[in-house]
Design a protein that fits this description.
single chain; alpha+beta; ten-stranded mixed β-sheet; 16 strands
Length: about 290
Amino acid sequence: MSRIAYVNGRYLPHADAGIHIEDRGFQFSDGVYEVCEVRGGRLIDARRHLDRLDRSLRELRIVSPMARAALLVVMKETVRRNRVRTGLVYLQVTRGIARRDHGFPAADTPPSVVVTARATDPKAGAAKAAAGVKVITVPDNRWERVDIKTVGLLPNVLAKQQARENGAFEAWFVDSEGRVTEGASTNAWILTAEGVLVTRPAEAGILRGITRTVLFDVAEDLGLRVEERAFTRAEALAAREAFVSSASGIVLPVVAIDGQKVGEGRPGPVAMGLRACFHDFAEADA
C-alpha cells in the first residue's frame, strides 16, 4: 500500500505530496515540528506534544493552523490511512507561502501544515536497546533557542552524520564549559556511581523532551532520584550507566562515548528498567 500524506487540507499519495517553492519552511526553515510515537495504532503523549507545539508556535509568533481537536483528527486520520500500528507520526507547521522576504508575510497568510506517518519495526528497536548504542561528543555550535522545536536542524544533521561516520548512533553536544547539553536528536542522561539519574535542566540550552518528561514519573515510581544539572563528558565516562531518550527510541542505553566504554560496556539494568516501564506512564490517546 502506498503511503498517504496530509498537506494543507488534502490527503495525497506520498509520492505526489509537495509544498510550494516559496513556503517559508523551505526558504527560511521558518517552522516547527513534532514527532509522536504510535503504539497499537494510538498516539502516545499527543497532549504533551501538542502543548509543546503550541509553545513553539508562540515563541516564533506563528499562528496556530487549526484548533487542537482538528489537528488531532488529522494526525489520527493520517495514521489510519497509512495503517500504522507501531511507528511515528510527523507534524510540521510553517509560517506559510509568501514572496521571499526575511520579514514576516501579511498577517492573513495561512500557515502550512504537513503530516506524515510511517511504520517502524519494534523488534529492531528492542534489539538496538539490548545491544546498546555508541555516542561521540561534538562542540555545541547551535543557536541559543534550541528549546524551540524548529525545523532549522543543520547543526544536528552535521553532528548526526559525524556520528555515523565514526560508527556511532548519536552525537552529544558539549557546551563551551565542557558540559553535555543534549544529543543531536535525543536527550542525554547518566546514572552516577551513587545511583542518581542526572540530566541537564530543560532551560534554553536543551529541548524539553516529551519522553524525558515522562521518564521523571517512571524514575519516581522505581524509587530513583533525579537531579537536573549539567554533567561533563568525564562524569559520563565515570558513570555507572548512560542512555538517551526520544519519542522514536524511548530509552536507548549508551555503552560507549568517544570509543571509551561506559560502566561495563553493556546496557545497564536501570536504563532497561526505565525503557520497560515507560508505556505504563505515557498517555495513549483514545
